[in-house]
Specification:
Blueprint lengths: L8 E4 L9 E4 L7 E3 L6 E3 L3 H9 L8 H4 L3 E8 L6 E8 L2 E7 L6 E3 L4 H5 L1 H11 L5 H10 L4 E2 L8 H17 L3 H11 L1 E2 L5 H10 L7 H22 L1 H22 L8 E2 L3 H14 L4 E6 L2 E5 L1 H18 L6 H25 L1 H6 L9
Antiparallel strand pairs: 1-2, 2-3, 3-4, 4-8, 5-6, 6-7, 7-8, 9-12, 10-11, 12-13
Helix pairs in contact: 6-9, 9-10, 9-11, 10-11, 10-13, 11-13, 12-13
Bound molecules: zinc ion (2 copies).
One zinc ion binds next to loops.
Length: 372
């Protein structure tokens, strides 16, 4: 059969999946890839799948997809369109539960329509699953034992998270201003913190933004900045820089409004500072979009990787307990208000974020097996 560039060749060959009698060779003139017009599956012959994968990923050479393939599972009920022998089921990746059909005699591969995207991303998926399935080690244990902070296991962001870094830098610079002496500390608290008795409504609106950058103590700053550091980068990557910045600031404002509504004014005016409310909203987003990530939790000396929903369930429990039992000092309502707003935003934006980030979408499917 002669190949004519730019045209579609129809050939008499049965679709291995749906039995349609004709497959069409298309796809940019590559005569080794055919698609089925009825079920939209794809046939790859003579190593065409290797070439297609390696042309999408710089670090993949022409043969490495074969090492990505997981174990041979069993004989398939589909037949190779060329050799007329039953094909074999292979697991796509060792920690990814998708099965593809390969011909044992000619190296032809059949992919159902919904498998194409996953197979094309298999080198990325393989690296991501290796990161996510890392075990806790003596290093993560030592870190958490001495800092009381969780270790995060998630995919590496593709973009440089410069908004996250800038937010951390601004909070740090303003905190260093406190060290300039009691007068400067007082000025920062009164003017940049959120004061419910500020005389001017415009000033209160500005303070809804600025209070997010003010911290009362070093531990308050370090705790908040650590969480912003570990989860901000993935969220900024998923949303894009400016949407991330906008949602971060908006969340901080919503958290402050929750605190303003619920605080007890008989105890005097409210003075609110800190990034905790904004960061609590990031927890909500993270829980909705990164079910495959893990955060470690330590009970006395035992360290365990937890899924985000377990981790933040425990965190919310501590906050609800604190709201009903403590005498003030911590803005529990701002934490829970921010978290609730983050969950709502995370739910509303979920489809948009998954469309923008195919890798994250795949890791959110039940096919991805995460070991905790
Ligand atoms: Zn078909
Ligand atoms: Zn074959």
């Amino acid at each position: 059969m002669a190949r004519l560039p730019g045209t579609v060749q129809i050939m008499k060959s049965q679709c291995p999946a749906c039995g349609t009698p004709t497959l069409r060779f298309v796809r940019g003139g590559d005569s080794r890839i055919a698609d089925c017009s009825s079920c939209h599956g794809l046939w790859f012959e003579d190593g065409a799948l290797n070439d297609a994968i390696s042309s999408e990923h710089d670090h993949v050479d022409d043969h490495s997809h074969e090492v990505n393939l997981g174990q041979r599972l069993r004989t398939s009920d589909r037949q190779c369109r060329r050799c007329r022998v039953p094909m074999e089921h292979y697991q796509l990746l060792s920690n990814y539960r998708v099965e593809i059909d390969c011909c044992p005699s000619c190296d032809g591969v059949w992919l159902d329509h919904d498998e194409v995207e996953q197979v094309m991303h298999s080198p990325l998926l393989k690296d991501a699953l290796a990161d996510l399935n890392k075990k806790v080690s003596w290093k993560s244990w030592l870190f958490q034992f001495f800092t009381a902070m969780p270790v995060e296991y998630n995919v590496q962001p593709q973009k440089v998270p410069f908004v996250t870094w800038t937010l951390i830098a601004l909070c740090t610079v303003i905190f260093l201003g406190n060290l300039n002496g009691p007068e400067s500390e007082h000025w920062i608290l009164v003017n940049l913190g959120l004061n419910s008795d500020s005389p001017d409504p415009i000033q209160i609106v500005l303070q809804l933004l600025t209070y997010q950058f003010v911290h009362g103590g070093l531990m308050h700053l370090l705790g908040n900045m650590y969480f912003l550091w570990i989860i901000g980068d993935n969220l900024e990557d998923a949303l894009g820089h400016w949407a991330f910045l906008g949602l971060y600031l908006l969340s901080g404002m919503m958290a402050a409004l929750a605190e303003l509504l619920l605080f007890d004014s008989s105890q005097g005016p409210l003075l609110l500072v800190g990034a905790s409310g904004s960061i609590a909203a990031l927890f909500g987003l993270y829980l909705m979009w990164f079910r495959h990530a893990s955060l470690t939790f330590m009970i006395v000396v035992y360290q365990k990787k937890l899924a985000p929903h377990w981790y933040f369930l425990i965190w919310s429990g501590i906050n609800i307990f604190g709201m009903f039992t403590s005498q003030g000092g911590v803005a529990w309502a701002a934490h829970l208000g921010g978290f609730g707003f983050g969950l709502l935003l995370g739910y509303v934006l979920r489809d948009h974020v998954m469309r923008r980030n195919p890798l994250i979408a795949m890791l959110n499917q039940p096919e991805a097996q995460i070991r905790r």
